[in-house]
Amino acid sequence: MPKRSQNVPAEYTVYERAIAKEIGARIRQRREHLRLTQEQVRIRMETESISVTQGQFSRIEHGESLLNVAQVIALTKVLEVSYHWLLEGEESERR
């Protein structure tokens, strides 16, 4: 069975990488603003029933991996931000 990426146009993978980097940068920015470590964020995500390894979280922050929907939901709660801000960066942080 061919890998999913073999059927995806090159422009799409470039676009995905750009989005992943932007989202990862916002996650790191907000995490640092809250003075949380990656481990603290991961533990808080687990309280939302979402488990990610240290390696997975690092790849997300470095823009090497896109979030799934469950991770987005957990991170908006943990980082106290809106979905719109996390995904698009256009809305101010939730207070």
Automatic annotation (TrEMBL):
Protein origin, superkingdom: Bacteria
Residues of the HTH cro/C1-type domain: 27-86
Residue ranges crossing the lipid bilayer per the database entry: none
GO molecular function: DNA binding
PROSITE patterns for this protein: HTH_CROC1
SUPFAM superfamilies listed in its UniProt record: lambda repressor-like DNA-binding domains
Name recorded for this polypeptide: HTH cro/C1-type domain-containing protein
Organism of derivation: Kouleothrix aurantiaca
